[in-house]
């Protein structure tokens, strides 16, 4: 992962593509799973961007 200010980015998109192929899903779904979490409050559903550290924890959890 890398960062551009407060925004966390995936540095190697080829790995995202490989992971998407292994999981039989689109690359966009893999990126969203690694970089965002969904927060539901009442009727609103919000995608909140992970910090660099949160994205790293999510990556490690997905690898398990």
TrEMBL record:
Keywords linked to the UniProt accession: Actin-binding, Motor protein, Myosin
PROSITE patterns the UniProt entry points to: MYOSIN_MOTOR
GO CC entries: myosin complex
Myosin motor domain mapped to chain residues: 1-64
InterPro entries (alphabetical): Myosin_head_motor_dom-like, P-loop_NTPase
Record family assignment: Belongs to the TRAFAC class myosin-kinesin ATPase superfamily. Myosin family.
Protein name in UniProt: Myosin motor domain-containing protein
Organism: Cirrhinus mrigala
Classification of source organism: Eukaryota, Metazoa, Chordata, Craniata, Vertebrata
């Amino acid at each position: 992962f890398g960062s551009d200010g407060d925004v966390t980015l995936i540095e190697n998109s080829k790995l995202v593509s490989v992971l998407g192929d292994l999981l039989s899903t689109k690359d966009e779904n893999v990126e969203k799973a690694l970089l965002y979490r969904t927060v539901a409050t009442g009727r609103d559903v919000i995608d909140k961007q992970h910090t660099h550290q949160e994205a790293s924890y999510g990556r490690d959890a997905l690898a398990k």
